[in-house]
Amino acid sequence: MKTEIRFYNTLLHDVEPFATQEADQVTMYSCGPTVYDFAHIGNFRTFLFADLLRRFLEAAGWEVEQVMNITDVGHMTEDDLADGGGEDKMEVSARRLREAKKAGRPDAAAVDDPDDPYQVARYYTDAFLTDARALGLAVADEYPAHMPFASQYVPAMQDIVRRLIDNGHAYVASDGVVYYSVESFPDYGRLSGNTLDHLRSGSGGRVTEADQNSKRHPADFLLWKPDANHIMKWDSPWGEGYPGWHLECSAMAMALLQKDVIDIHTGGEDNIFPHHECEIAQSRGVTGAPYFARFWMHARFLQVEGEKMSKSMGNFHTARDVFAGKVTGTPVHPAVLRLELIKSHYRSHMNFTAKGLRDSAQTVRRWTEFGRRLEQEANGNSQPPDDHPVVQRFMAALADDLNISGALAEVLPWMANCREKASTALGVFRFVDDVLYLAALQEKGAGTRQTEEGSDEVAGLCRQLDEARTARDYTRADALRQQLIDAGYEVRTTPAGTTAHPRLA
Ligand SMILES: [Zn+2]
Q1: pLDDT in tens, 64-80
Q2: Are residues 229 and 317 in the same domain?
Q3: Using a CB cutoff of 8 Å and minimum separation of 24, what contacts does 317-324 make?
Q4: Within this chain, do residues 113 and 45 fall inside the same structural domain, yes or no?
């Protein structure tokens, strides 16, 4: 099903028809997590926006090849400094874990040696993958092939630095640091709207005295920093040291997607400058192509109960905090957080609230139960849904710059009033759920649980419950029902028998 698709392209500062270079294939690069801490709900809002985009394009008939990097090196604490000043985040994290270990806090127990940055990265990567899979990020199931570590691509980054020096886009400064020369690239600032004059005056990035001495232009950014004392360092023609943060995405996009120009690049709005501006300068500096990515798409910030989320405000939530019920007082199923984080338009500042979560929980519960009922009634037989008006309107809404509210407004009322033949409705349900990935996430969770605990055991309890009912032994039936409920299952008894599914939030 090919729909006329239009996306807002940050590069054009406007909406434009979506087109790819190859007929049925989309290459997509998504800036991924920095593994020095647990990912928070704002990070996951951005990642889930990319996931919704991907699943929508797949439903529309494209084959999507998505790469998402894992940043385990070179990321500085002061993100707004294009040249990478400040302390490396991995160093900060190692220090925090050292202190946690000394204090005997359990979160540090999994890391033997906090001074080994690879152990720290491994620890937070595992945590990320667990959360990301729970939330249904398709790319997390493609780890490690499509989720590479920056630290494994340092030779590819060095290759880019070498080529940029050779063709005059980069230079070695008097203090040995390799910088990208922004004046060598006339399009620098096109994505973010920061002109070089604006940057020279210092409002787009602070300029230190040391920079003034060695840089040609204050906005020139770091490509390689010789530093023999750095926590992660590599040999290079410019001395033992580490790469600039922006390099990794240029290197991994080129290495894994194998294209000079990729179709879509996603990230959070905080990535636009300096990170994406610098990625473009580096990549095009090497390829000479008119674009690095044809479409640049950015998700806006998330607020919590109308306030900026920050550790000092005490409203800073990781995904695992939400799952564990630290925000609402009761555990939240990942499918509920998924819906909550995708249900407002990616270019609006979403407001994360406890009430919103409760609404999402109700929607996910109704949607999943609707699907289970249809599966049962239709006996798993579904009609192809492509011509169904609900599917067409759902896709048309998403084709309009991923208008998720419009798409949900087609589907949810249809669900509430559905009188269609079960097999017809099931076709629509499955199609829509492939994109939203809500019921599927529940069943996936159920699958995991059943393999861990034995689906036979749950099915066995249901069978015993039915036998007890037939024998009118209601005390035993109630005890078995309670046993399933205590194990986290929702138990339903119909004339056809008893079924149990993992309980929602
Ligand atoms: Zn990036």
Answers
A1: 999 999 998 766 544 44
A2: no
A3: 317/40, 317/41, 317/352, 318/38, 318/39, 318/40, 318/41, 318/131, 319/38, 319/39, 319/40, 319/41, 319/44, 319/131, 319/134, 319/135, 320/38, 320/127, 320/131, 322/41, 322/357, 323/131, 323/134
A4: yes
